[in-house]
Amino acid sequence: MLYALLVTLCCAALIAVPSVLLWRVRRQARGRSVPPGTEDIPDLLGVAYLLGDAERVVDTVITAMHADGRVTVRDGRVAVGDATAHNAVERALLKHCGAGWGDSLRTVVQELRRNPLVHAVGRSLEKLDMLLPRGLQAHWERVARAQTAGLVVGAVAGVVLLFLAAFRPMGVVLLALALAGVLARVAYGPHKSCDPYTDFGRDVVRLINTDASWSRKSVGEHPHGAAGVVAVHGRVPDKKLRAQLIEASRTRTSRRSGATSRTGRSRGSSATTSSSSSSSSTSSASCGGAVLDTGGGSDTSGSGHSGHSGGHSCSSGHSCSSGSSCGGGGCS
């Protein structure tokens, strides 16, 4: 009798503990429990990352600086006209550009996509409950597998005890727990689509795509101009710049065949290509690992989101104050 009770308790724990963990992870994956409002829409770089990942952040920054003449792109090379940066990612871009016709566009794009300040954009989106925290999807799937194993063991033990007259009540308890565990798995199991959004994040994406100002496709009508069109719709309005970004992306892709571009959480092949050739305002997502940070890395002036303020790392070993800018050699 004692052994049967111990088996019942152990099997019950194997079912109950993973089921509770599934429920907790599912709650975390929902994000905020209130519907988002326009005040929840992140800043420009946050929107770019949310809708198109690190690649679109880079396209957005290059478009913004090209639109107001701070940088010029010609024949696949980038030149700085005005070394003024409005956020940390722009300072990082200036750091990669020489005083004359310095680095190639391909190099600048590639370096920016790897820059920690760009990846900081996603981490604040995690803090804002819009993206799943780093590693949560993998943890969610591990918990689901553990629960499946517990369900199998518990159900088998329940069936065995059910056929033993003396232990039939314990068998009924185990089978009832197994049924409850199956229902928990259906209700709280991991996302099948592997997309990186929380439920709240998906609502924010829908809000951006339907908002009267953010969803505008005309450069003249969008509150953020050409950069806003790129951030939301993924299409560079300037045809010459678009062609050069496509070429820079193709060069990079040919040297890295088969590689995915999302630092941790890839949503597609190249955001430059999609931002240049697709007018779709939604993005498809695939599994990956790390995310970025809209407040910290983007540091757009006026942003109310959490993140770094004041000084930002401009390059390895250099930092810029909030009002400083970066030239080819570092900070000025």
E-strand count: 5
If you compute it from the alpha carbons, what radius of gyration comes out, rounded to the nearest whole angstrom?
25 Å
- What is the mean predicted local confidence, pLDDT? 76
User: Proportion of β residues?
Assistant: 5-15%
Query: Which spans have pLDDT < 50 for at least 5 consecutive residues?
Result: 252-266, 268-332
Helix content: 40-55%
Number of alpha- plus pi-helical segments:
11
Question: What structural category characterises the helix and strand content?
Answer: mainly alpha
How are strands sequenced across the largest beta sheet? Answer: 1-2-3
Shape designation: elongated
Give the ordered list of helices and strands. Answer: HHEEHEHHHHHHHHEE
Span from first to last CA?
79 Å
Largest sheet: 3 strands, antiparallel
Features:
elongated, two-stranded antiparallel sheet, mainly alpha, 5 strands
Brief summary:
With 332 residues, this protein is mainly α.
Could you explain the architecture of this structure?
- This protein has 332 residues and is mainly alpha-helical.
- It is built from 11 helices and 5 strands, in the order H-H-E-E-H-E-H-H-H-H-H-H-H-H-E-E.
- It has helices at 2-30, 44-67, 88-95, 105-114, 116-127, 136-162, 168-188, 199-210, 225-233, 239-255, 271-277, and strands at residues 71-74, 77-80, 101-104, 312-315, 318-320.
- The strands form 2 sheets. The chain has a 3-stranded antiparallel β-sheet with strand order 1-2-3.
- Helix 1 (2-30) runs antiparallel to helix 6 and helix 10 packs antiparallel against helix 11.
- It is elongated and about 85 Å long.
- Mean pLDDT is 76; it is low at 252-266 and 268-332.
